[in-house]
Write a structure and sequence with these properties.
With 269 residues, the chain is mainly α. It has helices at 10-19, 24-44, 49-73, 75-79, 82-96, 103-113, 117-120, 122-133, 135-160, 172-183, 188-199, 203-268. It is flat, with a radius of gyration of 29 Å. InterPro entries: Ion_trans_dom, VGCC_Ca_Na, Volt_channel_dom_sf.
Length: 269
């Protein structure tokens, strides 16, 4: 992540060097992990004073981190990065709802702080960025999946409506829910397929074809699209690295040529 340097103020430059130090981000990641431990422990020890103190300290550490980054990078430089906007929103919500009367809201905000792990770790950030860029392609696959699920739900409701238990294919929406269970392989053979096949022998064609199309083809398409975008990002990064190396080599070659010219001139003299 490239951050814009601001050398107008020595103080701001020192702060920028601090937030860009190699140990600064690992420290913040450790604090985020500690926040996760506090959230888990609080579910076993609600209202524990030590956990409340730790939670308060963590919140203010995040606030200080936010302030240091805004000072060091400048407001424009900080908010030009979308992940920084995400961080700012999470920390702001933590402050706004810190004394929320509803315990469930407070716990939700504490859990949301864990999401800060995504921008803090480059590998996670890369995956999310690739996933977001693949959304247009995934939209087409989602439309195809919706069509396939709807067709199979209508077929299931039409032919298996009277098969016990009725909650499997008794209506369109229950058929959709059953197909979701089938596509995730959640006890689909013993609980869903076998009871239906016992009464309607040809039903195996229905289930096998849906498994092949819904689980194997569609899910593999989703995985293939995401992996393609991940590979594309790696290719772009490699290309940028090669271009940078080429420029460095060109500059080095020019320096060597200049040195040769100087040496030749010295010999002539």
């Amino acid at each position: 992540m490239e951050q814009r340097k601001n050398t107008n103020s020595p103080f701001r430059e020192k702060i920028r060097q601090l937030v860009e130090h190699k140990l600064f981000q690992p420290l913040i990641i450790a604090i985020i992990l500690l926040n996760g431990v506090v959230v888990v422990a609080e579910s076993y020890l609600p209202g524990n004073d030590i956990l409340l103190v730790l939670d308060t300290i963590i919140v203010w550490i995040f606030v200080v981190e936010l302030g240091l980054k805004i000072i060091g990078l400048g407001a424009r430089g900080y908010f030009s990065e979308k992940w920084n906007i995400f961080d700012f929103t999470i920390v702001a919500l933590s402050l706004i709802f810190y004394n929320a009367p509803l315990v469930s809201v407070l716990r939700l905000i504490r859990v949301l702080r864990l999401i800060r792990m995504i921008p803090a770790i480059p590998a996670l950030r890369k995956i999310i960025d690739s996933l977001m860029r693949s959304l247009p392609a995934l939209t087409g696959i989602l439309g195809l999946s919706t069509l396939i699920f709807s067709i199979y739900a209508i077929i299931g409701t039409t032919f298996f409506r009277d098969v016990l238990p009725y909650e499997f294919f008794g209506s369109f929406h229950t058929s959709l829910f059953t197909l979701m269970q089938v596509v995730t392989f959640e006890s689909w053979a013993s609980q869903v397929a076998r009871p239906v096949i016992a009464e309607i022998p040809w039903a195996w064609v229905y289930f096998v074809s849906f498994i092949v199309i819904g689980a194997l083809v569609i899910l593999n398409l989703v995985v293939a699209v995401i992996l393609d975008y991940l590979g594309h990002d790696d290719e772009i990064a490699h290309q940028e690295q090669m271009e940078r190396l080429y420029k460095e080599n060109e500059e080095l070659r020019k320096d060597v040529q200049e040195i040769k010219q100087i040496l030749l001139q010295e010999r002539v003299k």
